[in-house]
Design a protein that fits this description.
The chain contains four helices and five strands. The protein starts with a strand and ends in a 5-residue tail after the last helix. Strands 1-3-2-4-5 form a five-stranded mixed sheet. A hairpin with a 2-residue loop joins strand 4 and strand 5 (85-91). It has helices spanning 12-17, 33-49, 64-69, 96-103, and strands at 5-6, 23-28, 54-59, 77-82, 85-91. By secondary structure, it is an alpha/beta fold. The protein has one domain (5-102): Glutaredoxin.
Amino acid sequence: MTTLHHINQDVFPTEVLQANKPVLVDFGAVWCSPCKMLDPVVEQLAGEWGDKVKVVKIDVDHNPDIAMQYQVMGVPTLILFVNGQPRERMSGFKPKKQVQAKFEPHLN
C-alpha cells in the first residue's frame, strides 16, 4: 500500500491545479469513520495506478477554505482534478470497484 501525501491549502495550487497529471484529492477528517474505512481503498488504488495519477489527502478541519471552494459538504469526498479542473467526484464510503469504475476512465 502507498502512504498518501497530506497537503494543505497553501500548496494546493501547486500540488493539484498546476500538476502535469491527474490528481485525486481525498478530502477527509481525523474524526471521520467512513474516511478511515476508505483510506486503505484509496492507498491501494494509488499503488495500483502508479504514475498515472497523483493522490493526496486534505483535512477539511484544517483547510476549510479549499473544502468550501470545491463544495465539499461531507467527508469523505474524492475529487479528481484533470488539467486543474474538477472532472469527477464521489462522496461517502464506496467499495474499491466503485471507486475504480468512477475514476479510472479519466486516467488514460
